[in-house]
Amino acid sequence: MNILVTGGMGYIGSHTCLALYKAGFTPIIYDNLSNSSIKVLEQLKIIANHTFEFVEGDINDRDKLEATLNDYNIKAVFHFASLKAVGKSTEQPLRYYDNNVSGTVTLLTAMQKSAVKQIIFSSSATVYGDPQYLPIDEKHPITATNPYGWTKVMVEQILNDWCLANEQNLAIALRYFNPAGAHPSGLLGESPTGIPNNLMPYISQTAVGQREFVNIFGNDYDTEDGTGVRDYIHIMDLAEGHVAAFSTHQKDSGSLVYNLGTGKGYTVLEIITAFSSSANVEINYKFAPRRAGDIASNFANASLAQEKLGWKAKLNIKAMTDDTWRWQSKYPNGLED
Ligand SMILES: NC(=O)c1ccc[n+]([C@@H]2O[C@H](COP(=O)([O-])OP(=O)(O)OC[C@H]3O[C@@H](n4cnc5c(N)ncnc54)[C@H](O)[C@@H]3O)[C@@H](O)[C@H]2O)c1
Whose CA is nearest to atom 35 of ligand 1? Predict the structure, then answer.
């Protein structure tokens, strides 16, 4: 079965293509390469011993989307393509709404025209805003604290309405907690452009000497060691979560939502210690004041996915830091070098 993977050259999309292929599906990658390298294709080929189909295109290009959906006889779409830098989204909100929200409307319009009725969407735990309780389950109220977060809230609403309008449509929004780690081969991983938004690439860039130290924002939170707690999930587990969601609901319809997290939080200092031991290097860090809008702790109640999808994150923090280090030390500047 052919599945269109928008944003399939990116960090989460590329790993999910491998999981889809392993499960017997045929991913067709659709990406405009705005935040990824064409070299990802070579890495995928080495890992899977398979040449993945790639179409260079934008999700705002309806004609190209329609042609691709028809040419490849696509049955479902895994939709990863989006801009994701929270800070930039506050500086350039229109760009974010255009890419993430309008782009999704264009994608759904093309799908409707081509009678493709199933979509798996990359949502985020950011739709929970500041947690009102922990661990966060799917019933927690939805809101956002920045334009990026609002794009996720809006797309979830659009998917809901799209399913209400046609009872055959299926939309599954997967709310990721904190994706981390890399492919265990070290051939594929996250290589953010500019200053990383996420902790793990920041630490790994510090470990290879690209950054002097890790800034830890706040050491007086009400947590075990005073630093913030987040729910890190290994990218390989996350990729498998997508396959589990699609395989389980392939014959269903309606709008569904699942948390993908481990249910366990780690502090910033615990992650730094784990990374130090994986890389066998000292990682410098400095404490800085809390950042506005940051929260002490955030972790998932992941029991719905376990109950309904039979999926549970298996890999621990050591696997995340070991695999990130393998990738970072092999490709210190990402694949472009
Ligand atoms: N990485 C995280 O921490 C995280 C957390 C929660 C949710 N998400 C969501 O998961 C999805 C994938 O994230 P990622 O970390 O792999 O990001 P990424 O930037 O590595 O991958 C996104 C891919 O989409 C492509 N893309 C962007 N806009 C496009 C467009 N208009 N047309 C075609 N392709 C386009 C980029 O070139 C890139 O290859 C995103 O929707 C993101 O918002 C990510």
Answer: 81
Measured from the Cβ of residue 186, the count of other Cβ atoms closer than 10 Å reads: 18
CA 133 to CA 276: how far, in whole Å? 32
pLDDT (mean) for 301-305: 98
- Mean of per-residue pLDDT scores for the chain: 96
Binned at pLDDT 50, 70 and 90, residue 213 comes out as very high
pLDDT tens for 76-92 read 999 999 999 998 999 99
Beta 53-56 vs 285-288: how paired, if at all? unpaired
- Give dist(CA 243, CA 17) in Å, integer: 10
Q: Can you give the residue ranges of every domain in the chain?
A: 2-180+232-260, 199-230+264-330
| Among 12, 154, 156, residue to substitute to test ligand 1 (most atoms within 8 Å of Cβ) | 12
CATH domain 2-180+232-260 topology:
Rossmann fold (3.40.50)
- Ligand 1 close to Cβ of residue 99 (< 6 A): yes
Per-residue pLDDT averaged across 270-297, rounded? 94
The CATH code of domain 199-230+264-330 reads 3.90.25.10
Question: Which helix (DSSP H) or strand (DSSP E) does residue 48 occupy?
Answer: helix 40-48
Q: Is 100 in the pocket of ligand 1 (CB under 6 A)?
A: no
Mean pLDDT over 118-130 rounds to 97
DSSP output for 178-195: EEE---TTSSS----SSS
pLDDT score, position 325: 97
> Given this chain, do its domains 2-180+232-260 and 199-230+264-330 carry the same CATH topology?
no
Mutate to test the pocket of ligand 1, among 34, 54, 58 (most ligand atoms within 8 A of CB): 34
Mean pLDDT of 102-119: 98
- Between the CA of 81 and the centroid of ligand 1 the distance, in Å, is 5
Tokens of 114: 């081509």
